[in-house]
């Protein structure tokens, strides 16, 4: 039965259609470049519709993007993985444990982590582009969340509809961050793409997708005044249901860490 599900997942990935069996039984090959490196999975190349016509103006215009294959962190970088490379953890929720996502890390500090990891492995680590991130989060789906159109604490760690508060409900046992991998993976074998901590991307923040790249690369500008606001994606433990949609985008200042923002790594093939 496992073999049948695995083959079905491969077919579905090729057609960019999601299926719950893939999320529960994903067996994507894991790439690990060193003992303290995050596990990565290879994301297949493909095209997808980015944004949401029903969402906010910053999620429009909806547009087609073609993304090349790349490696992406299977889970968010943990406190233990950060400490192994950087020497200490800045996390506000350190009591959650070493297997919980690192947070309170600024975009600039993340760049130093990626540089250190690149030196350690001889391979160039980076943050995913915003397009790569949404493509990976959707994993072939077109619904509001990778599991469907209705938010559910069975699939993600997120908060109440009141601003900025955690919520314990059903399988979501945590009022703040949860250990990575506490919920099922999407069809690409990625955990916690929605909820837990929001995730830094490489892109400068723009107020719409007008003139956005169509090839999956990070959207950067010659005008470096825009470099200090970067896109964060995925929502967090204190986000409402709207805040963890696959298309939801937000901005954060590069030098200002938050207890709701972490990251996952990416690497080109």
From TrEMBL:
Residue intervals of the Sulfatase-modifying factor enzyme-like domain: 37-267
Alphabetized UniProt keyword annotations: Signal
Superkingdom to which the source organism belongs: Bacteria
Pfam families assigned: FGE-sulfatase (PF03781)
Leader peptide range in chain numbering: 1-23
Listed transmembrane segments: none
Cited InterPro entries: CTDL_fold (IPR016187), Sulfatase_Mod_Factor_Kinase (IPR051043), SUMF_dom (IPR005532), SUMF_sf (IPR042095)
SUPFAM superfamilies: C-type lectin-like (SSF56436)
Signal as UniProt keyword: yes
Listed name of the protein: Formylglycine-generating enzyme required for sulfatase activity
Species for this entry: Rhodoferax saidenbachensis
């Amino acid at each position: 039965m496992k073999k049948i599900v695995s083959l079905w997942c491969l077919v579905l990935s090729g057609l960019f259609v999601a299926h719950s069996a893939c999320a529960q039984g994903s067996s994507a090959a894991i790439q690990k470049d060193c003992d303290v490196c995050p596990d990565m999975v290879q994301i297949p190349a493909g095209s997808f519709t980015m944004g949401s016509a029903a969402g906010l103006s910053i999620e429009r215009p909806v547009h087609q993007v073609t993304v090349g294959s790349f490696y992406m962190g299977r889970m968010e970088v943990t406190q233990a993985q950060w400490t192994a490379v950087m020497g200490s953890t800045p996390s506000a929720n350190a009591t959650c444990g070493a297997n919980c996502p690192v947070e309170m890390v600024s975009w600039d500090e993340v760049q130093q982590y990626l540089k250190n990891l690149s030196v350690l492995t001889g391979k160039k680590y980076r943050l995913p582009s915003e397009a790569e991130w949404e493509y990976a989060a959707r994993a072939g789906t077109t619904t509001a969340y990778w599991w469907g159109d209705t938010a559910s604490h069975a699939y993600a760690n997120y908060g109440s509809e009141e601003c900025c508060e955690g919520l314990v409900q059903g399988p979501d046992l945590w009022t703040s961050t949860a250990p990575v991998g506490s919920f099922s993976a999407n069809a690409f074998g990625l955990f916690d793409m929605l909820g837990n901590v929001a995730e830094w991307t490489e892109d400068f923040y723009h107020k719409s997708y007008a003139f956005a790249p169509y090839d999956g690369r990070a959207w950067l500008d010659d005008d470096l005044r825009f470099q200090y606001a970067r896109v964060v994606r995925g929502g967090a433990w204190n986000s409402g249901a709207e805040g963890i949609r696959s298309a939801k985008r937000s901005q954060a200042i590069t030098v200002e860490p938050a207890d709701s923002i972490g990251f996952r790594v990416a690497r080109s093939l």
